[in-house]
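Internal tracking record. Fields below are filled automatically when a chain is submitted to the structure queue. Please do not edit lines marked as system-generated. If the sequence contains nonstandard residues, flag them in the REMARKS field before resubmitting.
Queue: standard
Priority: normal
Entity type: single polypeptide chain
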Amino acid sequence: MVTPRRRPREPERPEERPEIMTKPLPQILGEMEAAIRAAAEAARRAEEAAKAAKGAAGAAIKASEEAAKRAEEAREAGAKAADEATKAATEAATRAEGISQTAIQFAEEAARKAEEAGKGARKATEEAVAKAEQASAKATKAAEEATTASKEAAQRATAEAEEAAALAKEAANTASVSSGSSPKSRGGSSKSRGNR
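SYSTEM-GENERATED OUTPUT FOLLOWS
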């Protein structure tokens, strides 16, 4: 049977006295006063930081509201410009169509007169009619292209204005969230000061 070994007894440590029993009272009071002053300074700095954060949040909200206003103005200006461009293109197409109709009428009148004048003038009349029809087709095509281009410009302007409005709204939401978190930070600082 194995006999368990006994551990050697450790030398007894001298009993540690509390620190408050070893320092003189004036020194303890001085340390307490220094700690209180440090805590008050920390609380003051925290309160200043909270005020600065609140001011920055207010400025951010104001800036986001201004950006939203500018975006709305840009959207309205874009929509107005698109409407004006569409109106101008429509008027141009109407004028071009009127011109082409007039040209066709003149060509038909010329053809009638040429036919009355004789067979010799028939060829020239047919060429005049063909040229008039070509001019009418070109004018109609130009009017259609102008209308298409104005509609595309209006769509682009509307899309850009809506995108700017969405960005401004997002900035306003972000600024509102930031301003909502500032009072919590100030409250937390006050609570810490009260605990100390």
